[in-house]
Amino acid sequence: MTTFLLVRHATTDAVGHTLAGRRAGVSLNAAGRAQAVALGARLADARLAAVCSGPLERARETAEAIAAPHRLAVDVRDALTEIDFGAWTGRAWTG
To answer: Which of 9, 32, 61, 89 meets the CB 3.0–4.6 Å disulfide criterion with 21?
Structure first.
């Protein structure tokens, strides 16, 4: 039986502030990097055959932290990209 783990990227400065959508150049912040490394450590004993990621920086950074303990290369796939929010991309959340 094959098991898939679906992981959303770790946190960025945009989380809770703007709708990043498919905006490029949104990387993990310090907390997000720590989250990704912690998840990589948590999954270090898992038997992973592959790690795939969408093309956006934040997704690739998260996937790389998961793949590193397994010495796996991240398979970047355009089909795994973020949803396109169109004109809403980059807009601030208002409360």
So the answer is: 89
